[in-house]
Amino acid sequence: MNFINKLSAAWTTNNSLLCVGLDPDLARFPAQLASEPDAIFLFCKEIIDATADLACSFKPQIAYFAALGAEGQLERICAYARQHYPHIPLILDAKRGDIGATARQYAREAFDRYGADAVTVNPYMGFDSVEPYMEWTDRGAIVLCRTSNPGGSDLQFLMADGKPLYQHVARMVADKWNRNGQCALVVGATFPEELAQVRAIVGEMPLLVPGVGAQGGDVEATVKSGRTAGGAGMMINSSRAILYATPQGSEDFAAAARRVALETRDAINLYR
Amino acid sequence: MNFINKLSAAWTTNNSLLCVGLDPDLARFPAQLASEPDAIFLFCKEIIDATADLACSFKPQIAYFAALGAEGQLERICAYARQHYPHIPLILDAKRGDIGATARQYAREAFDRYGADAVTVNPYMGFDSVEPYMEWTDRGAIVLCRTSNPGGSDLQFLMADGKPLYQHVARMVADKWNRNGQCALVVGATFPEELAQVRAIVGEMPLLVPGVGAQGGDVEATVKSGRTAGGAGMMINSSRAILYATPQGSEDFAAAARRVALETRDAINLYR
């Protein structure tokens, strides 16, 4: 089953558009994990187990592992998720972007080494920096389009032919890069009207939407702006609000994560 | 000594604008290394030793290590270069691009874990995706501007206010992002007239220029278009032409690498 089909099935099975982001920050870990040598693996495993029936995808952020030299724990987390929850798409958030021969190495990293169903990629270097990922025909490439960080507009809102750059990216991906139906887009939740514009451009293409939860995006506006006619089409990501739902030091971080994931999923579902 | 000063000193000491790129591809390694468990480290170590008096910088491409789970060997290569050739800037080619908190993790990866003097970064997410790197005040961020791959024009040549996007990036980095003099730009060698336009925009800012050697850029046009008034200002990268200078299987790959590096350095110096 390819990435898009697997995602569609997870939307239905778990009645969820929630993507659980895995950004493991040791400084915020519960006290009982602090002395464990594989604390990152254990923390993420508990989060995955606690939310697997509530999520449409899991999204580990590789930077948190790379900073600590913890790629081995990321390998184990990915293997665990694939083994125990093979029906939940696994997205490697790496935002890779490089030319052909090098992009192929990054594709091997994401798909062969970590076994991800999809990887986030950067469009700045153009189609041949994204095309190598398509050789893995059952996997996906999720292209950065519009990001909701303060500097997101520096480039993305430059106007070309009367339209901001991010709309050109959406159009390019929809019309040219998505030849085999393997693409999705990253569009932040902060600007719902822009989310709606991207949805109008790309039809049914899935959107990965960060910015709800700790980043403060409005759930109702996000869902109404980004959903497809069928009430799906989105992976709405929440990371820190779920991972660090309890005061630090309390033992029930996984139960708290489940509670927040459930609330977030249900809040999203109110507006589908 | 900070990155820019270190680079300036290396230009002078080695009379060289040549950046030696380290893209270790096991399939192209000499036969005698094939059975070594740390073949990647040994190969790169020999290349570094053979070219350290001819290069103004070394640039490992992290994708080649990440695909193989060989981050440990990359750590050893970086440590070796720092220890034995501390005056040669070490550039981690990672083209990272993510928002603030995540960018800080990538900065920790590049600067604390690998000890790089500079890291390549992607501008698509704007200034706050680059700013965290500046907290390491003696290190540098080398921002993608104009790339010479076939798809490079997909975004970079979109016209805004009558100018292509890559010129806006050059202007933004020169006027705003380079507050503390820590920035450089990536500009491909394939289009010398564009290299000249970027040079005119950014003054003395260093340019990392891939595309000479295996990628076929013209040395004379590249140097004349990209040099500063002082005849420097560039790191002209060559990777495969140096690394794989001999027919596969021959034993003298390091001597051949040295020969090609010397020829390339001298060819560049003809036009400074």
UniProtKB/TrEMBL annotation, chains A, B:
Enzyme Commission identifier(s): 4.1.1.23
CDD domains referenced in this protein's UniProt entry, alphabetically: OMP_decarboxylase_like
GO molecular-function term, one example from the UniProt record: orotidine-5'-phosphate decarboxylase activity
Top class in the EC scheme: lyase
GO biological process, one term: 'de novo' pyrimidine nucleobase biosynthetic process
Pathway assigned to this chain's UniProt record: Pyrimidine metabolism; UMP biosynthesis via de novo pathway; UMP from orotate: step 2/2
Reaction(s) the record says it catalyses: orotidine 5'-phosphate + H(+) = UMP + CO2
Pfam families referenced in this protein's UniProt entry, alphabetically: OMPdecase
Xref: HAMAP family: OMPdecase_type2
PANTHER family named in the record: OROTIDINE 5'-PHOSPHATE DECARBOXYLASE (PTHR43375)
Protein name: Orotidine 5'-phosphate decarboxylase
High-level lineage: Bacteria, Pseudomonadati, Pseudomonadota, Betaproteobacteria, Burkholderiales
